[in-house]
Design goal:
The chain has 394 residues and is of the alpha/beta class. Helices cover 44% and strands 15% of the residues. Helix 8 crosses helix 13. The chain is globular, with a radius of gyration of 21 Å. The two termini are 32 Å apart.
Length: 394
C-alpha cells in the first residue's frame, strides 16, 4: 500500500514529527512518501529529515497562486507513484489535494490539527479549509475537541474519526545532565526554578498572558526564571511587554532551538497559555520527559492530561489564574515530581505511535476496500461515536 503525505512545511516542527513517527510505525506494510510545497525553499528542513530517516520525499515544484498547475502536478505525481491514498496535512494541501485526488480517482483524507486564526490571511484560508473538509472522504481529527469544531463546520459525522497525536518517549531518555546548567546560564542572574514554554510566537498561543502571569509569580518569588522557545510575528510585542514589567532578567525569549528535546527535561515546569489548540505536541513532549505541566483548558490539552491531572488546567485568557497555578505548583517540590511521574506514565501508555498506526491501518484498509472514493460505503460513523482503541476518552 502506498500513502502520499502532502503538506506545506516551513520548518521541522511538531506536525512534521507526527508525520514521520506515523510513517515509521506503519512500515514496512505501508509505504509512506512525502511531498511538500516548496515555501520558498523553507520545506527543505523537513524534506531532508524525511530522507535522512529513509523515506522518499520531494518538493512540489508548483505552488499557489498557480492553482491549476499545482493540482495537475500533484495528480500526475499520484498516478506516477501508484498512490493508493492521499493524506493531506494543512489547508493548502487539502485544497489542492482534494482536486488532485479526484482526478486520480483515489481516496483523500485530511488531517485536521486545529485552526490558529492568527491573521486575516490565515483566517481566510482556514475558512476555505472548513468548507473544503466537507468534501473529503475522511477527516482525521487529532482530538475530540477538534472533532467538535469540524462537526460544527458542517462535516458529516460519518466522515469524522479521532486519531490522537502520539509521542516517542525515547526522545527524552536518558536526560542530558549538562542541560540544566545550560538553561541556568541563559539568565543574567542566578535562578532556583525554571519555567519553560515553547511554540510559535503568535497571538493564539497566549504568551502575553504568560508574561503577565510571570510578573505575578516573580513578584512573590524572585528566584523563578521563565524561558520561552520559539519565533514568530509576535516577538516585538512580547519583548515590549517584558520590558513593561521589568522582567528582562527573569523572562527570556530564547528563539527557536533545534535541541529542545535535550533541554526540556531540565525544566521544573512547562506552561501552555494557548487560547485554542488541536492536540499540542509540546504538552505530550513535556509529559514524556517527566516535566509537570500547567495549561489552559482548551482543545485536546484536557484529553492529554485527563481527569488525573485536571487540577493543572486553568481557564484561557486569565493571567491571574495562570500565575496562581504556576505559583502553587512551584511551591511544592514533592507534588511537582509526582505530577511529572503521572504525566509520563499517562502518555507512555496512551499516546504511542503503535496505537496510532493501528487506527490508520484500519482507515486505509476500509478506504481502499470501498468500491468508489466518497461513497456511502466508507462510513466509519460507529468509530467516531465511541472511543477508539488508543484514542483519548471523552
Amino acid at each position: 500500500m502506498n500513502i502520499l503525505n502532502v503538506t506545506s512545511s516551513t520548518f521541522f516542527g511538531g506536525p512534521e514529527r507526527q508525520m514521520l513517527g506515523l510513517a515509521t510505525a506503519l512500515a514496512p506494510e505501508i509505504r509512506s512518501v512525502f511531498l511538500s510545497f516548496a515555501e520558498g525553499g523553507r520545506c527543505r528542513a523537513f524534506v531532508d529529515e524525511a530522507r535522512r530517516q529513509g523515506f522518499e520525499s520531494h518538493e512540489l515544484s508548483q505552488d499557489t497562486p498557480h492553482f491549476r498547475r499545482a493540482c495537475g502536478h500533484l495528480a500526475e505525481f499520484l498516478v506516477r507513484h501508484r498512490c493508493d491514498v492521499l493524506l493531506c496535512h494543512g489547508y493548502k494541501a487539502g485544497l489542492i489535494g482534494r482536486i488532485a485526488a479526484r482526478r486520480s480517482k483515489i481516496p483523500v483524507v485530511a488531517v485536521s490539527r486545529g485552526w490558529t486564526y492568527e491573521s486575516a490571511r490565515v483566517r481566510l484560508y482556514e475558512l476555505l479549509d472548513r468548507i473544503n473538509l466537507r468534501w473529503m472522504d475522511r477527516v482525521v481529527c487529532v482530538s475530540h475537541g477538534q472533532a467538535a469544531k469540524v462537526r460544527k463546520a458542517g462535516v458529516a459525522q460519518r466522515k469524522i474519526l479521532v486519531i490522537p497525536n502520539a509521542i516517542d518517549s525515547a526522545r527524552f531518555a536518558p536526560p542530558d545532565p549538562a542541560a540544566r546548567a545550560e538553561l541556568e546560564r541563559l539568565f543574567p542572574r542566578p535562578v532556583r526554578l525554571i519555567v519553560g514554554a515553547a511554540g510559535r510566537l503568535s497571538p493564539e498561543k497566549g504568551f502575553l498572558d504568560l508574561i503577565d502571569a510571570a510578573a505575578m509569580v516573580s513578584g512573590r518569588d524572585p528566584e523563578v526564571g521563565f524561558v520561552l522557545f520559539g519565533e514568530g510575528v509576535l516577538r516585538p510585542d512580547l519583548a515590549e511587554r517584558i520590558n513593561e514589567w521589568r522582567l528582562s532578567d527573569k523572562f527570556l525569549l530564547a528563539g527557536f532551538r533545534p535541541d529542545l528535546d535535550r533541554l526540556l527535561p531540565a525544566l521544573d515546569l512547562l506552561v501552555q497559555s494557548s487560547y485554542t489548540e488541536g492536540m499540542p505536541n509540546v504538552i505530550l513532549e513535556a509529559c514524556a520527559a517527566g516535566v509537570p505541566v500547567v495549561a489552559t483548558a482548551v482543545g485536546g490539552t484536557q484529553e492529554i492530561l485527563g481527569n488525573d491531572l485536571a487540577s493543572q488546567l486553568v481557564p484561557a485568557e486569565n493571567p491571574h489564574a495562570l500565575g496562581g497555578r504556576i505559583q502553587e505548583t512551584l511551591a511544592d517540590d514533592a507534588r511537582r515530581r509526582d505530577l511529572g511521574t503521572r504525566g509520563q506514565r499517562n502518555v507512555r501508555e496512551r499516546f504511542t505511535f503503535t496505537a496510532q498506526a493501528q487506527l490508520y491501518r484500519k482507515l486505509f484498509g476500509e478506504l481502499i476496500g470501498a468500491t468508489e472514493p466518497g461513497s456511502e460505503g466508507l462510513s466509519l460513523a460507529s468509530e467516531s461515536r465511541k472511543p477508539l482503541a488508543g484514542a483519548v476518552e471523552r
